[in-house]
Amino acid sequence: MSFTFTAFSYISALILDAFLIFFAVFHIIAFDELKTDFKNPIDQCNTLNPLVLPEYVAHIFLNALFLVCGEFFTLMLNVPLIGYHIHRYLHRPVMSGPGLYDPTTIMNADQLSRATNEGWIKLAFYLLSFFYYLYGMISSLIAT
């Protein structure tokens, strides 16, 4: 059975999307712990900030695969989130290292609410994307 590059890109997207779903769930749990005072803001930001760039790089990488194999509809579905990621990272708080979350402002009610909502929206997007990538993988494997 020969795989096409499209099938390979959808299989890779499924694997990367599973990691992105894990990141979104971890994000939601982390902010729930912060909201219930289970963890302090400094520890929470130290665990969340290192995950920001791997999430963004994984998402951009899988969309680069879609661009190379000519899956433009799938790419267009992901462009709004890529744009949001770029905008969010360019307008992040001034910090010494990479990441989005500043321990001094994360406990503000609006920041905490925004981060929690962002986590839920990303989780929904990644879950819907997972099933779409599964459909794309199956249809590209059937076509070969």
Automatic annotation (TrEMBL):
The processes (GO biological process) annotated in the record are: vesicle-mediated transport
Q: What is this protein's record name? A: Protein cornichon
Question: Which PROSITE patterns would you find in this protein's record?
Answer: CORNICHON (PS01340)
Q: What does the record say about its membrane topology? A: Multi-pass membrane protein
A Pfam family this protein belongs to?
Answer: Cornichon
Q: Where is it localised?
A: Membrane
**Keywords, in A-Z order:** Membrane, Transmembrane, Transmembrane helix
The keyword Zinc belongs to this UniProt entry's keyword annotation: no
Its source organism is Leptotrombidium deliense
Taken from the UniProt entry, a GO cellular component term is: membrane
Q: Which InterPro entries match?
A: Cornichon (IPR003377), Cornichon_conserved (IPR033466)
